[in-house]
Amino acid sequence: MVMPGMSPEQNPYGRPAPAPEPKPYALAGIALGYFMVLLDMTVLSVAEPDLSHALGGSVAGLQWAVTGYTVAFGALLLSAGAAADRFGAHRLFRGGVAVFGAGSLLCAAAQGLWTLVVLRAVLGAAAAACVPSSMALIARLYPDPARRGRAVAVWAAVSGAALAAGPIAGGLLVGLAGWRAVFLVNVPIAALTLALVSGNAVRCPAAPGRGIDRTGQALACAALALGTDALIALGGRHWAHTAWSFGAAIAAGGLFAHREARSASPVLPTAVLRAPGMASMLLAGAAVGFTLTGVLFVLPLLLQQRLGYSAVGTGLAFLPMTLPTAFNPLLTGRVVARTGPRGPVLAGLCLLAAGGAVMGAAVGTGTPYPLLAAGLAASGFGVSFALPALTTAVVTLAPEGAAGAAGGVFNALRQLGATLGVAVLGAFVTVGPHQGTGRADRGVAGALLVAAAVCAAAALAAARGRSGTRSRPGERNGPRARTVERT
């Protein structure tokens, strides 16, 4: 019973009342929204040839259809956490889901490739609104650490399910109804998500939080978009376009750096970036995004246009890569709990490097599918070892009170890596009737070997970065220091 004048959270004796049991449907809705956002990163991969046939356009247009999403997603993640604090996480999450559903419907109705690219950027902005606000809602719904840990585990497991479902779901949808179906499927998912998170059961009051530097955020978006455009133009050998975009990207980057140095609310939290050992972990996250998204871009083009796979067959061909992401994170979590994140991070990066090398050899030599499947499996286990461990490492290495900001930077750089993966590896793709199958195979093989080299370099940086995570004698004693030392 609550006495007059007391807050509903207090009992008559002034002690906090037990937190109400969160409704299961609330967590289901939050997780479903996260699933939808991540699914859209991979479901389009097997639809690329059908999309190109229906709307026309070059490989560069297909690259933008993918990177339009990741550019907006990654750049806006830098400020999305602050926006969730300022406006209320439940408002930002619901708004993001609603825009995502409406934008998906418009994507399905697009009549031109560049219209689709613009709409994909809208989806990326909506996705950036959903991810940090979903974590804030879970923190609000589950104040008890043990219950929150279980809820976060459910939320995080959704990422593996989305990665596993993306290519096969995309193949089935394209096989049944064409490329537009991969967007239409988002509409009922968004509607169900909004129904599950409506009402007062899912609320997160606005808090002052840190400010939002809109000018700095706009400059960050411009620099990333222009840099991506320069890389895509370089792959197409459009030299004047490359020079213009590269120069504009440098100018936007310079203005961004100038703005950051003088901003009261910088977009990039410098304390996070300067934390010992953090740089190598952020680099590793970008390398994983680079490889995963880049491989999902180039291989479907080869399998369908060069080897004659159907959309469904392409989705099935990716199962050796996607299945480990559905179950292996559970093992990774146990290993990280016992030994710390450093070992799984290095193992994951090494597996990704080996997987890229094996796939490159398989494509370059025309070896049958089993060798390609072995490379895909190694990459799948690499992703499922590296990403959960990297998340733990970044939060552990973050300065006190900056874990949320560190998570935002980490996820933003993962999307930056994904953007670069499509732009750089896509430049190697030369699939086309006028170019010859041999050249097409060599281009895809070269792209896969570049992905392997990027992961190998990230593994070397992570191994050498160990000294940055150790505590000096007499410094940072206690459990947190011991956890950091293990990374």
List the helices and strands and how they pair.
Layout lengths: L23 H19 L5 H8 L3 H29 L1 H20 L4 H29 L3 H33 L3 H4 L1 H11 L17 H22 L3 H24 L7 H4 L4 H29 L4 H7 L1 H4 L1 H16 L2 H24 L3 H29 L5 H24 L10 H28 L14 H8 L1
Describe the structure in brief.
The chain is mostly helical and 487 residues long.
Judging by the overall fold, what is the CATH architecture of the largest domain? Up-down Bundle
The CA-CA distance between the termini, in Å, is 48 Å
Shape, per Cα inertia axes: globular
- CATH fold type of the largest domain: Growth Hormone, Chain: A
Specify the CATH class of the largest domain: Mainly Alpha
Secondary-structure element order, N to C: HHHHHHHHHHHHHHHHHHHH
Which class do the helix and strand fractions yield?
Answer: mainly alpha
Mean pLDDT: 82
Q: Helix count, per DSSP?
A: 20
Low-confidence stretches: 1-19, 431-436, 467-487
What is the CATH homologous superfamily assignment of the largest domain?
MFS general substrate transporter like domains
In total, the number of domains comes to 2
Helical coverage, percent range: over 70%
Major β-sheet profile: none
As a whole number of angstroms, the C-alpha radius of gyration is: 22 Å
Quantity of strands, as a count: 0
Strand composition percent = under 5%
Written overview of the protein:
The chain crosses the membrane at residues 25-47, 59-80, 92-111, 117-139, 151-173, 179-197, 279-303, 309-331, 343-363, 369-397, 409-431, 443-463. The chain is an all-alpha fold. It has 2 domains: 21-201, MFS general substrate transporter like domains (Growth Hormone, Chain: A, Up-down Bundle); 268-487, MFS general substrate transporter like domains (Growth Hormone, Chain: A), CATH 1.20.1250.20. Helix content is 76%, strand content 0%. The protein is built from 20 helices and no strands. The protein has helices at residues 24-42, 48-55, 59-87, 89-108, 113-141, 145-177, 181-184, 186-196, 214-235, 239-262, 270-273, 278-306, 311-317, 319-322, 324-339, 342-365, 369-397, 403-426, 437-464, 479-486. The chain starts with 23 loop residues before the first helix and ends with a helix.
